[in-house]
Design a protein that fits this description.
The protein is mainly alpha-helical. It contains 20 helices and four strands.
């Protein structure tokens, strides 16, 4: 295998980390982010030892039960915010992302070589980094990478069996951080399948021992996922993540559906990475048929699973990107045997990164144009609307749109509760279908709901592009019963005029 001088390897890795950090360093769009609600969850936990399991932030359905599957992430975000502010949360997000990338890159480089891993990483990073909003899913990416690293190295006999004992412990933490904790079981199952395949097809005498060890670990994950505030309901909640909430979430739409609607900026790189990773499997299939190599059914099942996730919901582009580039590097490992004259070894990785980076940057201008400005912490002046609300002693009941719910929860709870927020699972589907959307489209329905709740303030995200949101704003601007008292680049505030 090509031996790259260590200094060149360091330069390549640093260049990749700088590139990734640049993609992630965007000011937080706090108007529409979930982060405000997560911070409030953390505040309730540390100040009142409370983990909400009903919709206490809303006055429309305060007793609606829901599974608080990411309360632990909110607790971590809250502590970091308490100590270092919003910039500290941005830095935490970047550090966790870089560590996750390094773990995947370590496996990719070890098995595929620096050259192959670097090419695929540069192509994959726009896919991986596009969801730069700070969400609890960052913990799922990190813990999935640790799971994969442990299982892969155990499979390669590079670490002892006792290393597997960390997996149930990680799972017990993971189940309280993010709903994707089930990925740990998927990863163990894939390696269990691989060893069963090796025993059955290739008569691998080591496989039986690994089957027993992995089966025991898989069984221990079951009680580990029960260690959450909702018990069995929390453990089974991933089965409900894609149910019909009565309100379509963009991030839950499939790649094919989004492609028909508009040119989604990261879709170009997703397609390129998907095609490349598929081609690597054609190489593997060809060699397996010719009996030159053994076919890795476990890796193929993981690639198929994460490709399915990426194709069926754009929210999964990041997790697909991580696994696709690592698995593709493993598949193309033998390309690292290319002989390069010693005179050029030192410069090859540097030139390679520069070349691939230039191609990546120029191939899809829409992607780079869609990126927000560079920076840490909150977007400039994003808290002005909330400060205006409090300074002028405005009060509710507040009618707000879906996107701005988390913003209001952070800034106004418990003095004011929201009409709705961006947790569709915390409201009945009928609420969105029969109340929230119709009241913005239909004047009579608006008057009916307004009479029921007696709204005193309307707090809206200015950039709500839904057809009903646009129609509602147009009607209120021309409504003599309401006065627009605040407007900036993020929010609009209306107050009810005195009779």
């Amino acid at each position: 295998m090509l031996k790259i001088p260590k200094v060149s390897e360091i330069i390549v890795v640093v260049a990749l980390l700088v590139f990734y950090s640049f993609l992630l360093s965007q000011p937080i769009n706090f108007s529409t982010a979930d982060l405000g609600r997560h911070l409030k969850n953390g505040e309730l936990f540390f100040q009142k030892f409370q983990i909400p399991n009903t919709n206490l932030y809303s006055y429309t359905y305060p007793d609606q039960p829901f599974i608080n599957h990411h309360w632990g992430s909110g607790a971590i975000f809250y502590l970091v915010h308490l100590a270092f502010g919003f910039s500290g949360i941005s830095i935490l997000f970047i550090i966790l992302s870089l560590v996750t990338f390094l773990i995947f890159f370590h496996v990719a480089k070890k098995e595929g070589g620096l050259w192959t891993a670097t090419i695929l990483a540069v192509i994959a990073l726009p896919v991986i980094a596009y969801r730069a909003e700070i969400r609890p899913e960052i913990f799922s990416y990190l813990l999935a990478s640790i799971f994969f690293w442990i299982l892969w190295n155990y499979q390669q006999d590079k670490i002892p069996k006792k290393s597997l004992y960390f997996l149930p412990i990680i799972t017990a933490v993971w189940v309280n951080l993010h709903i994707y904790f089930f990925l740990g079981g998927v990863l163990v199952l894939a390696f269990l399948l691989e060893n069963a395949w090796r025993k059955l097809i290739y008569k691998d005498h080591k496989a039986l021992s690994k089957i027993k060890s992995l089966a025991i670990i898989l069984l221990t994950l079951a009680p580990a996922v029960l260690l959450n505030p909702s018990g069995l309901k929390g453990a089974l909640y991933p089965l409900k993540i894609f149910e019909d909430y009565g309100y379509k979430l963009f991030e839950n739409q499939s790649f094919f559906f989004i492609e028909k609607l508009f040119a989604y900026p990261p879709a170009f790189y997703f397609k390129i990475l998907f095609i490349i990773s598929l081609l690597t499997w054609l190489v593997v299939f060809s060699k397996a048929v010719k009996k030159k190599t053994q076919f890795n059914l476990g890796l193929f099942s993981l690639w198929f699973f994460f490709s399915f996730l990426g194709l069926t919901a754009v929210r999964n582009f990041t997790i697909f990107g991580y696994f696709a580039f690592a698995i593709s590097s493993i598949n193309l490992g033998e390309l690292a045997l290319i002989k390069i004259g010693s005179r050029y070894k030192r410069f090859l990785p540097i030139f390679l990164v520069i070349f691939v980076f230039a191609i990546t940057m120029s191939a899809n201008p829409a992607f780079w144009q869609s990126r927000q400005s560079f920076g840490l912490g909150l977007q400039k002046n994003v808290l002005d609307a909330a400060e205006f609300f409090k300074k002028n002693n405005l009060h509710g009941p507040v009618f707000n749109n879906y996107d701005v719910g988390g913003y209001l929860i952070y800034n106004l709870y418990p003095q004011e509760k929201v009409f709705v927020d961006n947790r569709p699972e915390a409201y009945p589907a009928s609420f969105f279908q029969e109340t929230y959307v119709p009241m913005q489209e239909n004047k009579e329905k608006w008057l009916e709901v307004n009479k029921k709740y007696n709204f005193q303030t309307i707090f809206f995200w200015r950039n709500d592009l839904t057809p009903w949101g646009q129609k509602f704003l147009s009607q209120r601007i021309n409504d003599p019963a309401w006065a627009l008292v605040f407007a900036d680049n993020y929010h609009l505030i209306f107050i009810k005029k005195s009779n």
